[in-house]
Amino acid sequence: MSNQTSVKMVNKTTLGDKLRTYLKHPGSFIVMLLVMLAAIITFAVLIFLIAYILINGFPHITPSLFSLEYTSENASVIPALVNTIIMTVLSLVIAVPFGIFSAIFLVEYAPRGNKFVEIIRLTTETLQGIPSIVYGLFGMLLFVNALGWGFSLLAGAFTLAIMILPLIMRNTEEALKAVPDSYREGSFGLGAGKLRTVFRIVLPSAIPGVLAGVILAIGRIVGETAALMYTSGTVAQIQDSIMGSGRTLALHMYNLSSEGLYMDQAYATAVILLILVVGINAL
Amino acid sequence: MKSKAWTEKFMQGVFFVAACASVLAVALICIFLFANGIPAMREIGFIKFITGEIWRPNSDQFGILPMIVGSLYVTAGAIIFGVPIGILTSVFMAMYCPKQIYKPLKAATELLAGIPSVIYGFFGLVVVVPLIREMGTALHRVGLVKNPGNGNSILTASLILGMMILPTIIGTTESAMRAVPSHYYEGSLALGATKERSIFRVIIPAAKSGVITGIVLGIGRAIGETMAVIMIVGNQARLTTSILDGIRTLTGNIVIEMGYATGLHREALIATGVVLFVFILIINLCVALLKRGADHE
Questions:
Q1: Do A35 and B258 touch (CB under 8 A)?
Q2: Could you report the predicted ipTM of this complex, rounded to two decimals?
Q3: B52 in the Ramachandran plot: left (φ > 0), alpha (ψ -120 to 50) or beta?
């Protein structure tokens, strides 16, 4: 912020002054135009994408799209929606404790400059860079085949949990670091132990940061396709057990559009998916 | 008192074990991928696998060169479209954006990152593919290109991937530019340089490592992107030189054939994943080195 205010002070120019400078330096003017053009392209493309899908999709949202059973006639989204919710909850249940605990270890317990901490950082960054299809392959090899779970929501959830772990870790870590040391000292001074300090003082103050990580993770889970295709499978029905196979909304959307028979429903599903993601982002 | 000390120790152990999870995950991913992929590479012959030009699983020909080239093509295309626009947009965000609209615009770039890849793919399928198809036909009619293509092409995938890597580049570049001390900029202005000259000759060179990190992260995202690409790139496993032709990427190869592959074919697909994984590890290493370099400066 200090950057901006100081810039203002140096740059107290009127519009006329600016125009005169640009007349003297046409190169700068062209560069400025390019910058504006690029910004306009970026935001115009985003607005066009959202508007296009909403405008073309809304008319296709019909009551039959929301029937409880998926049939080849209605291409209902409800089973996929239910599976998405189950998948989100399961993945979070697995990943959040691990993410928070490891962040606590990194910030509160690990000695500074420890080699092991370096390794954890490195692996977290590696995890963040791995593309979802590689997670999908790994999930298929480990959970579906080696552990013999078959295509199941559970296998998908474990795969996604590994994928979102770095997101939750990162955000929690940042939030824990932002808690002032005086909180900890105050707590110690009152005679609380380390554990009590962490759970009663530090973690509660870091909750907003943790939640930000969780929300990012939910967005990622809802939009994920490649990692789920060969782990949770593509059955379009509500399952009564987490060992059953079920497709999430994003995967449902992919199947609809790649089959090419349900373009109208694909548009409608895109609207629902987009609204979900925008909603999650707006939180 | 004694039980309390015990709980402290116990929980410390729990935290430590949790912290090991990410290390364990990376180790498991490496072990499972390599253990399942390398035997196939050995059976096919590593050199033959990497440089083979023909992918025909039915006749036991497993050459993934077309897919490697395909991934490189679409990634290069994404860089060509995404990097200039991304960097210029981050200049706008860091230096030009009026304060009142900064917040919504920032949220918009974050939304760009949050939109699922199927949506991008779908958008490409219903908007960009027909556009490119018409363009190809028009060019073909004039006689500029030999093959008009059907719209599912390298160009289409490059455009969509260019869009998808924008938020990565904008985020990293913008924060790198903001981290440049403001007196650099002020000094440049005081010497009589225009705002634009100060930005492009002083701030961007100073933020160089951040800008490059952003580009490398963008490359990683583009090369690993799967669903959006297979929806719009045509997926023909072949070598081609026309950007209006379809091609198949490493990621696409895995997703398209994994559903029905068995035996050596299946292992060859996992080996494709290994090649992709190695690409990504190299990119990650570059990012880590760049970050370390930036810290030392």
A1: no
A2: 0.89
A3: beta
